[in-house]
Write the C-alpha cells for this entry.
Amino acid sequence: MIEFTRRTSRNVKRWQSGDMCLRWTAAGMLEAERQFRKIIGYSNLAKLANAVERDVTARRVPEAYTTIATASPEVAASPA
C-alpha cells in the first residue's frame, strides 16, 4: 500500500497544505485497494469482534467486584 501511495504522489511538486497531502495519500490508498484480496471468512469478522468484546467484558467484571469487596469497612458500613 505504501508503494502505491508513493507512486501516486511522486509527481506532485507543490504541496500547498495538509489537506492536499491527505488527498494524495487517500488517492494512493484507493489505488492500492484495487489490489487487495478478501480475507477468508471475512463475513464472520463481526461475530469474532463480538466474542472478543464479551470475553474482555467478562474478564473486567470480576475486577470491579474485587475493588468493591476490598473497600475499607467504613465505606461498606456507611448508609447509602
Q: What stands out?
A: The chain is about 70% helix and 0% strand.
